Amino acid sequence: MTARTTPPDAAFDGGDLDCGNGLLLLIRKHIDPLRPGQTLEVRSREPSVETDLPAWARLTGNPLLHVSRDGASLRFLIEKGGAKSEPLPAIPAPASAPLVAPRADALAVPPFAVMGVGSWPRPAWLVRALHERLAGRLGETEFEQYADDAVRLAVVAQERAGVDVITDGEQRRDNYASFVAARLENCQLVPVTDLLPYVSNPEKFAEELKALDVPAERFRHPAVFGSLARKGALTGSELPFARSVSPKPVKVALPGPYLLTRTMWLDCVSDKAYATREALAADVVRVLREEAEHLLAGGAALVQFDEPVLTEVVFARPGGDRKFMCGALGERREPADELKFARDLLQAVLKELPRERTAIHVCRGNWSRDESVALSGPYTPLVPLFAELPVGTYVLELATPRAGELTPLAELPRDARIGVGVVNQKLDRVEPLEEVLARAEAAVRAFGPERVLLNPDCGFATFADNPVASAAVAEAKMRTIAEAARVLRARYGFAP
Predict the structure, then answer these.
(1) Is there a single domain that holds both residue 258 and residue 181?
(2) pLDDT at site 320
(3) Looking at the chain, which terminus has fewer C-beta neighbours within 10 angstroms, N or C?
(4) 323 and 417: one domain?
(5) SS in 3 state form for 361-419?
(6) Do 163 and 23 belong to one domain?
(7) Do residues 477 and 378 lie in contact, with contact meaning Cβ atoms separated by under 8 Å?
C-alpha cells in the first residue's frame, strides 16, 4: 500500500467500536452513498480492527488502499468497489396517468380467483432507482414517482391478463422480505457480504452465496442494532396507491414472523440489541401485527404472510451443505423446535385477525431459475403446523414436481381455501391451458371447487435484481390461469 495525499470523499471516526459492535454498520452507512472508485477514510482506536477491517475489505470487494497509525489511532483508506466505467441506464421522467376510483367493496375474492403470489418483474429503470435510493443518492419523494409508474405498468399487465386479485408487484421493494428494514427503527440494510465476518465459516458461507443468480454484494440483508419499532407503515404507499389505480381487490404480502426472526437474528449482531432470539421475535410479532391491522383497515382484501423458510427447516439435509434461502442465514435449532417456534409466532400475529382476509404462502426457494438448487419434498411434515394456524388461505407451490402430491393437504382445515400453484414461474415455457386445467381439476377433487384459488408457484421477481421471468412471460402465464378460471367457473356453476 502506498501513501495517498488526495483527501477522501468521506470520513468518520469509529472510536472504540469493533467490527462486531457496529463499526461495519457505520462503514456501510458512509460508503453506500459513494460512487465506485470514491474513497472512505475510517479512523479507529480499537486494536482488533487492524486485523478485521482488511478481512472485511477483501471479502466485500472494497479495496483497502492505505493503513497508517497516529498514536493509538488507526487510519484506513477504503475505495468503494464496483464497476466504474459501465453506464447505468437513465431513469425516465415520470409519466402521468389518470387514477381509477376504487370500487366501494374491494374485498370480494370469488372461487377460482386468479392472483399472483406477490412480485412482478421490475423495469430496468426502476431497479436503477432502487439502488440509487438504497445508496442515499435518490430522495424518497423522487423514488416514489418512479415506483408509481412501475406499479401502474404491473397492475395494467395483470388486468390485461384477467387477474381477479391484484398486487402492486412489490415494485417498491428490493426484495420480498428485507425491504421492511428501511421502515423500522434501529434496523439497517447491508449487503449480505458484510455479514461474512460474523459467520463461523466465512469461506463456506461465501461458497453458498454463489447459488444466487445475483451478485451477493447487491443482495441486502437487515441488521438489527436496537429495539425494533415501526417508523410508519412498513408497506408505505403500496396499498393506497394500488387501490387508487385499480377497482379490483388488492392483496399485500408481508414477510412472516418466523422468516423475519430468522433473517434478523445473527450472532454478534442482533444479540447486541436482544438477549435472546425470543425477545427479538416478540418485537417482530408486534410490528407485523400492527402492519396487518393497518392494511386490513386500509381495505386490503388479503394480507399474506410469506414463510418459505419453513421448507428449509424440514427439507435441508441435517449436517449437510445448507441450501441458500433468503431468511435462512441465521442458524436454526432442531426441526421440531423450529416448527413449534414458527407456529407460536404465526399464531400470535394472526390471532383475532379476520381469517377470510389472511393468507400464508410457502414455497421451496425462488432465488434461482435452476430447479436443481431449490429444496424438494412434500408438504407432509408441515401440514400439522398449517392445521394449527388461524388463517383463511394457504397459497402453495404445487406445479413443480419438487412440491410433491396434493394428498397430504387433505388434512388442512375444511373451512380454509387453497391457492393452488398451477404454473411454474421459473420456466420460460408458458403452460398450455389443458395442463393448467388438469392441475386445477386435481385440486377440485381434493378440496372441492368452492375452496380452490389459482396462482403461480411463487412470485415472478422475488429479488429486484433477479427476476425469474420476464414481464411478457409473467403476463402470458397469468392469462392462461385466467382462461382456466373462466372454464372452471362455467363448469362448476359459479358466476363469471
Answers:
(1) yes
(2) 46
(3) C
(4) yes
(5) EECCCCCCCCHHHCCCCCCHHHHHHHHCCCCCEEEECCCCHHHCCCHHHHHCCCCCEEE
(6) no
(7) no
Over its C-alpha atoms, the chain yields an Rg (Å, rounded) of 23
227 and 130, same structural domain? yes
**Of 42, 57, 79, which closes a domain?**
79
* pTM of the entire predicted model: 0.86
Query: Quick one: 373 and 240 in the same domain?
Result: yes
Which among 23, 30, 71 has a CA at the least distance from the CA of 48?
23
Tell whether 235 and 339 lie within a shared domain.
yes
Q: What is the pLDDT of residues 101-159, one digit of tens each?
A: 545 566 889 999 999 999 999 999 999 999 888 888 899 999 999 999 999 999 999 99
Whole-angstrom Cα distance, residue 44 to residue 60?
A: 19
Residue 333 contacts residue 268 (beta carbons within 8 Å)? no
Residue 341 C-alpha from the chain's centroid: 21
Q: Is the Cα dihedral 316, 320, 326, 332 positive or negative?
A: positive
For residue 43, give the CATH number of its domain: 3.30.110.40
Domain count, the chain: 2
Q: Are 196 and 60 in contact (CB under 8 A)?
A: yes
Strands (E), 28-100: 39-44, 64-70, 73-79
- Alpha carbons 392 and 416: distance in angstroms, whole number: 5
* DSSP per position, 130-196: HHHHHTTSS-HHHHHHHHHHHHHHHHHHHHHHT-SBB--TTTT-SBTTGGGGGGEEEEEEEEGGGGG
Same domain, 141 and 57: no
Task: Give the per-residue SS3 of 306-354.
Answer: ECCHHHHHHHCCCCCCCCCCCCCCCCCCCHHHHHHHHHHHHHHHHCCCC
CA distance 418 to 109: 12
Alpha-carbon span 480 to 429, nearest angstrom: 12
268: left (phi over 0), alpha (psi -120 to 50) or beta: left
In three-state secondary structure terms, 239 is: helix
Segments forming the whole domain that contains residue 483: 124-492
How do residues 386-396 score in pLDDT, each as one tens digit?
999 999 999 99
- CA–CA dist 314, 244 (Å, integer): 41
Residues 424, 479, single domain; the answer is yes
